[in-house]
Structure formats: structure tokens, C-alpha cells
Write a structure and sequence with these properties.
The protein is an alpha+beta fold. The chain has one helix and four strands. The protein has a four-stranded antiparallel β-sheet, covered by helices on one side. The radius of gyration is 11 Å and the shape is globular. It comes from Bacillus australimaris. This is YhzD-like protein. It holds the Pfam family YhzD.
């Protein structure tokens, strides 16, 4: 069953640069998709987080 996840990237001032929904069959797949999207957009060094629809934190970089 697919779940919804939210990938958010912030700049230094706290403004959201990216705020996207990700759907995946598992937490591991969601993390893989999130990392791929961060690399595509060149946001790997920015503050970011990936959470599931219940608020569980899966990825975090500050």
C-alpha cells in the first residue's frame, strides 16, 4: 500500500525552497526517492527533511 511522504528543503533563513509530496510503498523506498530528488535539485547540502503522513522523521539534514 502506498503512503504519502513530504520532502521539504529550507534555505538559511528558514524559507522553504522545495515542498513536495512523495508516494512510495515503504519508508526505504521513500528515502531513496527523497535522496534522488535532493540530488536532482542540488539540495543535498541544504537543510531538509522527509516525513511520513504521521510525522515520522525519515531523513534530516541541518
Amino acid at each position: 500500500m502506498e503512503k504519502t511522504y513530504y520532502l521539504t528543503v529550507f534555505d538559511r533563513s528558514g524559507e522553504a525552497l522545495l515542498n513536495e509530496k512523495v508516494t512510495a510503498d515503504s519508508d526505504e523506498k521513500a528515502k531513496e526517492l527523497g535522496r534522488h530528488r535532493l540530488m536532482e535539485q542540488k539540495y543535498t547540502k541544504h537543510s531538509h527533511r522527509l516525513v511520513d503522513d504521521a510525522g515520522k522523521l525519515l531523513l534530516f539534514e541541518r
